[in-house]
Amino acid sequence: MTEKKYVIAIDQGTTSSRAILFDHAGQIVSVGQLEHEQIFPRAGWVEHNPIEIWSNIREAVGQALAKAGTNRHEVAAIGITNQRETTVVWDRTTGEPVYNAIVWQDTRTDRICHELAGTEGADRFKARVGLPLATYFSGPKIRWILDNVDGAREKAEAGQLLFGNTDSWVVWNMTGGVDGGIHVTDVTNASRTMLMDIHTLEWDPYMCEQLGIPLSMLPEIRSSSEVYGYGRKQGLLIDTPISGILGDQQAATFGQACFEKGMAKNTYGTGNFMLINTGTELVASQNGLLTTVCYKIGAQPAVYALEGSIAVTGSLIQWLRDNLGLVSSAPEIEALAATVPDNGGAYFVPAFSGLFAPYWRSDARGALVGLTRFVNRGHIARAALEATAFQTREVLDAMNADSGVALTELKVDGGMTANELLMQFQADVLGVDVVRPRVSETTALGAAYAAGIAVGFWEGEQDVIDNWAEDKRWSPAMPIEDRERTFRLWRKAVTKTFDWVDEDVL
């Protein structure tokens, strides 16, 4: 029998799909990656084509295997991580989506959320599901599809339609699709739908009734690390066990070895997502954070987390590149920002999809404030980078308040951590060390570990801890008075984004 040398992680993200091959030391062997189209039918709407995503995944797997000069016989397991909340509804008999995937950033369900909140407010269901009523989550998106796509509700009630975040869509297709595809998700993804009871980790019939969603649409909820099925339709990985599923931010937390209560990480991607491990104890936030499932390994008890979700960070840099032409490539933003010593008094609040944690204001919209004739391109670039750091500070303050323990350092990962100017400013504005690991692709790595542990490729969490290594550390260098002054001005800028969307345009 051929020795199993690798685990492959499929990272189905917001802007691209990747396949990353990892060895036993947790090091990257090869990567395949393809971007998919960002579809904006109207202001506030964001969609993806699920068929394009599935096609890209198959090609990305082929790229990764070819670059490594290997094949499925040397691959021990497949792990899947995905953009959470992004909603796919498809026909179980044809395999065709009834509508494009509605992306987590999409705000079209604002009216549905307002109607469901009624007089009880956005926290009406928070004790049951750990989440406020917000456009962010999957449940209202399913409701929108059933209410607005011709024939969808009738088909759903007849048991013909399936729902999944993109993890379920990928697994169903990989395991055969219309020919016996397995319809599953894991507890981390289920915890982002507003349909799972956060205490029992089971679908909540009451929530499904409130949102008008048939239970027959929903995937089976499983742990984050077990064998769900085997590759079939994806010929390059036929008979390979699919044995790990984690939503992207929980996967990054796992990959960062945040296994102890009180450990936290922050991922810098399209948006920013900070999670703090709260152990097997479910903690209800009093400061605008989400209660979510962190991970569940096989039959072990589920581990919970508090999460601070920030909608727009890396996508702000993309916006400056694609919509304004301020830079021609995202990495150029650091050099442009470095042409000035500070933001020149300009503050950029990127509330393009409203404000997520800790405000949860769907009526907010982006604002660039503090402008004078002194402000130039460099100041705007710097203000855009600083927006990521300021939003992270707000989330960290909320975590400290909820946990009662001040974090002493922050583990970071994701593409923006390559930006040294941003990382130094992040340490400055937080007042704690910021630490980047040697393998920054911790989202894919976490999914790989979950899959590998399920099949014995790795023994358990200790292997993850042993493989983790520090790459670089940034320590605060900004005087405290400067830190608090600039943060005070940021918070003032945030208030200028409130109440922008009126009722008649929801």
What does this structure look like?
By secondary structure, this protein is an alpha+beta fold. The protein is 33% helix and 23% strand. The protein contains 16 helices and 23 strands. It has a seven-stranded mixed sheet. Strand 15 and strand 16 form a beta hairpin. Helix 9 packs across helix 14 and helix 12 packs across helix 13.
Report the end-to-end length measured between terminal Cα atoms. 60 Å
Task: Provide mean pLDDT, rounded.
Answer: 92
- Overall geometry: globular
Count of DSSP H/I helices: 16
Backbone CA Rg: 22 Å
- The side-by-side strand order for the widest beta sheet comes to 17-18-16-15-21-22-23
The assigned structural class equals: alpha+beta
- State the share of residues found in helices, binned by percent: 25-40%
Total DSSP E strands: 23
Point out poorly predicted stretches: none
Secondary structure blueprint with pairings:
Blueprint: E1 6-12, E2 16-22, E3 28-35, E4 47-48, H1 50-68, E5 75-82, E6 87-91, E7 101-102, H2 110-117, H3 126-129, H4 138-148, H5 152-157, E8 161-165, H6 166-174, E9 184-186, H7 187-190, E10 196-197, E11 202-203, H8 205-211, E12 220-222, E13 225-230, E14 241-247, H9 248-255, E15 264-268, E16 272-279, E17 290-295, E18 303-310, H10 314-322, H11 332-337, E19 347-349, E20 367-369, H12 377-403, E21 409-413, H13 420-430, E22 433-437, H14 442-454, H15 461-467, E23 470-474, H16 480-495
Parallel strand pairs: 1-5, 5-14, 9-12, 15-21, 21-22
Antiparallel strand pairs: 1-2, 2-3, 4-7, 6-8, 10-11, 13-14, 15-16, 16-18, 17-18, 19-20, 22-23
